[in-house]
Amino acid sequence: MRQMNVPAYFGPLFFSMFLLAVLLGLMTSTPPLYAQTPVAAATAQPASAQSPTFFISCSTSGGMGIDTYYTGVFEIGAKPGRSPHPPNTPGAYIGETWMVPAVLSQTVLDHFQAYLTQKGYKFSPGSSSGCDVKPTAAETQAAQHKRAYEGGGCSNCGKVVETGWKE
Asked: Same structural domain for residues 38 and 95?
């Protein structure tokens, strides 16, 4: 094997490049120094104290002589988050916000319909369009009320049944 002669300045050059890469990596993974001031620390909220998670309410389909069943309004355990690009947890786009992890409305509706079947209720299965997902319980409750009582009005439809079911 042939040995190569490397100039003496390459060792410190490569070492300084390595240190620079480590320093840049640390700078991008930690908050800036100004965020550590007492004022910023006092006003900053921990991640667990973030705004509440998303809320959901779903219903079955109604129709001529068919009752429409509604779930209660409940928290689904997903928080506003980043766009779901790998390796992040998959999310869903709700309004103008990503919901992470994704809680599929159809999954909630499927569980609700299984509950109704177990109880022996007669209903027409719904689709995920029969679910309201909002960032607050009040907004979800308002959307549910609008769907249930301010809809198109159907003289032959069954009654509205609020079950209070929560997954």
From this structure: no
| pLDDT, tens digit, 9 for 90 and up, residues 85-124 | 555 555 565 565 656 555 678 888 999 999 999 999 999 9
- pTM for this model (two decimals): 0.60
SS3 string, the chain, reads CCCCCCCCCHHHHHHHHHHHHHHHHHHHHCCCHHHHCHHHHHHCCCHHHCCCCCEEEEECECEECECEEECCCEECCCEEECCCCCCCCCCEEECCEEEECCCCHHHHHHHHHHHHHHHCCCCECCCHHHEEEECCHHHHHHHHHHHHHCCCCCCCECCEEECCCCC
In terms of domains, do 79 and 24 share one? no
Q: Tally the domains of the chain.
A: 2
117 and 156: one domain? yes
Say if residue 71 is in the same domain as residue 126. yes
In one letter, which amino acid is 103?
V
On whether residue 4 sits in a domain, the answer given is no
